[in-house]
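note to self — DONT lose this again. spent like an hour looking for the file last time. sequence + predicted structure for the chain T wanted, 204 res
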Amino acid sequence: MDHLVFAAPDLDEGVRHIETHLGVATSPGGRHAGYGTKNRLVGLGPKSYMEVVGVDLDQPEPNRARWFGLDTLNSPRLVTWCVAVSDLDDLIVRAKLVGLDLGESKKGSRRREGGALLEWQMTDPWAERAGGIIPFFIDWGDTDHPGISLPCFSSFRGIRAEHPDPDRVQQWCIALELDIEVSRGDHARLIATLKTPNGLVEIS
């Protein structure tokens, strides 16, 4: 697990939610130039974190809908997760063989509040991935992982999901070697378990 994505229409609201539930302060993230979003971060380990992402009203309207469904999101929630790999193109091919389209790989970037630029390659975050249960995948290349510089008072313990068609989604997870259990539910839902200063906490 590289990082969790907790999205909120109002970033301040999302930050309050996470800080209250985890008992930790979020750290500065930065702006996703051209995407119309910004984030704050919670360290979960040297190469693992949670991003709280929201709409950035100081940026022009992006050319397409904001990622993670932010334009239609009504309340803060865990919308998806991300897994680090070093073989994006091979992974995209393997996913297509089991009927899952991750889209083409593309470049992403974010400028830290201090000015440093982070760059990465990722699968299409707009691709339909069972309502976010299937993660998007990222290759940081030569960029230092954001988790390295984050204070770390919490850690990732596991993730599970619910979906109306759990058997199909579980088969996709197995094919992509994802450590996640999918059970039946009325709609797509992710639940991450974190060890925090407030004890074991579930974020969904």
